[in-house]
Amino acid sequence: MLDPRPHLGEPLALDLLNTRWIEDGPQDLLTDVAGLDVWLNSAGLAERTTSDERMLEAVLAARSAIYDVVKHTTISGLNDVLEHGRMRRTLTADGPADIEDVADPAWLPAWLAADNLLRLLAETPGRIRQCAHPDCVLFFYDTSKNGTRRWHSMATCGNRAKAARHYAKKV
Questions:
Q1: For residue 8, is pLDDT > 50?
Q2: Residues paired with 100 in a beta bridge
Q3: Taking the CB of the first residue and of the last residue of the chain, which one, N or C, has fewer CB atoms within 10 A?
Q4: Positive or negative CA dihedral for 29, 9, 86, 117?
């Protein structure tokens, strides 16, 4: 199954948030294990995991926790997800390496998404944004030079907003 979401390619944490979107009403990719498989494939995690109901529950917990941090600065849920793993530093023949250490494989994608959010928050927290269109629930990481991007996609939400402003001027 192809990924039906309208916006792909964001960092893992925001990509997980974007498994909910509005298109002819609310949509949610993660209503079952088949949808989880689509997300894991799209996120490049399918080769590292075997999906099941437990993993779906863990990923839903991570999505909720990440949303709570991004929208409400509530941190306890994210810390609960992070408790399921750690980053182990080691020296390999190729040099220093950080290795994910997640005891329960069902929690690996959830933990990776939570860890990704920590990295985004450490680098440039002000660049994590929700689309400015009032009918859009998608998130993006603003990579524009001056950090003023407002829409998850100029071609969709940005264009709709501009068209609405233009129409309002004509009326």
A1: yes
A2: 87
A3: C
A4: negative
Instruction: Report pLDDT digits (tens) over 108-133.
Output: 999 999 999 999 999 999 999 999 99
**79, two tokens:** 């810390």
Residue type, 12: L
Ranges of H-type helices in the chain: 12-17, 33-42, 53-72, 76-82, 108-123, 159-170
Which candidate, 20, 18, 46, 42, places its Cα nearest to that of 31? Answer: 20
CA dist 74 and 121 (Å) reads 14
3 state DSSP class of 104: coil
Handedness of CA 154, 159, 160, 165 (dihedral sign): positive
Cα–Cα distance between 154 and 160 in angstroms, integer?
A: 9
Model confidence band, residue 166 (pLDDT cutoffs 50, 70, 90): very low
Q: What is the model's pTM?
A: 0.90
CA dist 55 and 40 (Å) reads 11
Query: The dihedral of CA 33, 39, 43, 46: what is its sign?
Result: positive
